[in-house]
Amino acid sequence: MRITCVGGGPAGLYFAVLAKLADPAREITVLERNPAGVTYGWGVVFWDDLLDDLFRYDPVSAARIWEAAFKWDEYEVRAAGKPVSFLGGYGFSLGRHRLLDILGDRARELGVTVRYEDDLTDPDQLPPADLIVACDGAGSRVRDAAAEHFGAQVETGRNKYIWLGTPHVFRTFTFGFEETEAGWIWFHAYPFADGASTFIVECTPETWSGLGLDRMDPATGNARLAQIFARHLDGAPLDDAGRGWLNFRRVTAERWDHGNVVLMGDAAHTTHFAIGSGTKLAMQDAMALADALPATSPPAALLPAALEQYEHRRKVALAPLQRAARASSAWFERMPDYAGLPARRFSYALSNRRGEYPAWRYLLHMSTQGAVARTMLRWTLSARRWNRARRRPLRAAVG
Ligand SMILES: Cc1cc2nc3c(=O)[nH]c(=O)nc-3n(C[C@H](O)[C@H](O)[C@H](O)COP(=O)(O)OP(=O)(O)OC[C@H]3O[C@@H](n4cnc5c(N)ncnc54)[C@H](O)[C@@H]3O)c2cc1C
């Protein structure tokens, strides 16, 4: 079976790994327009649920991801004029570059051909293959070439955001809110490597233009943001990932397959960064498609059923997260309405932005703001993290 993946992001590379593991006789090619080691963005966050899945599907790449991942505890909420407050929890983060290096290396070790600097400009020019996986991101050319068939829709979010990085290492996942003369502006920041943190800045379009950010060149704009957030950055600069200010694009597609072409990851669906799950969902798509493909049967006859099974499984799994992402992004669009709340209520509203918490979570939140209760909560969660980790085959990376 010949498989071509258009796009060497997390979806394409991870699917290539899993499809090759399931049947080493498959000829799999990944086409990636960027040179090896080049990508957009900074670090991405993920949690235990993804790690559990990764270890189940390919312990070798999972162990490498685990070893490279930055482990952080707690969320910190810093809103101008209020005392700092804390949310329990823990998570992991990893630079996109590092993740793609790990997946690209693993794919090549297994015999996948990864062709970098191969930009598919015309989807009609794809080399013949039994299966074409369109995993070329939110702006998918393959999807857009048959946009009507796929029923693709793109909805644009109201807020402006920019994905920045900084050498300042945040201790933990931090939300910071500053009030300027043009309104509120905030960041979502987390460490993802020694000496590097992701720093996503977001604000309403009114604040964006009111601060003149719409008219500044990138260097001046980043310097202005570094000045607004100086007390959080200890004087460190902010670097752009090269894409500038954007509005989030929410992509949906009614159908995910068209003949032997199937959509995967951001090409099929995007999920707002406020819940930090797009990479996880892209990799879980890869798992579902690898599961659905018959390992040895003649592919052409069984392909439609396999693609249908994949799409159904993923749409069911995605629905609650997409609802959560919508609620979460809507909270940030209404953020100025919450600004007048006292610190603890503000941070609780932020943590419950998906609107799903039972009432006892409010009591837990209030009772864990003091140093002693917070430390106890951190220890308990830390123990849970290491207990979960203990059950995974962490030494598989050597293989
Ligand atoms: C600000 C921000 C923060 C985020 N933070 C997180 C986070 O913390 N956690 C998380 O899980 N997710 C996060 N995400 C989401 C995550 O980045 C995406 O959901 C994820 O990268 C999707 O993976 P993908 O492989 O589907 O697409 P992509 O990662 O976009 O990969 C697509 C690949 O296809 C290539 N390509 C495109 N067109 C062509 C072509 N014509 N020919 C050849 N190659 C092509 C591109 O170069 C790219 O390498 C964030 C997103 C944003 C915008």
From TrEMBL:
GO terms for molecular function: FAD binding; monooxygenase activity. Residues 109-316 form the FAD-binding domain. Keywords: Monooxygenase, NAD, Oxidoreductase. Transmembrane segments: none annotated. Signal peptide: none annotated. InterPro entries: FAD-bd (IPR002938), FAD/NAD-bd_sf (IPR036188), PheA/TfdB_FAD_monoxygenase (IPR050631). This is FAD-binding monooxygenase. PANTHER family: 3-(3-HYDROXY-PHENYL)PROPIONATE/3-HYDROXYCINNAMIC ACID HYDROXYLASE, BLR0106 PROTEIN.
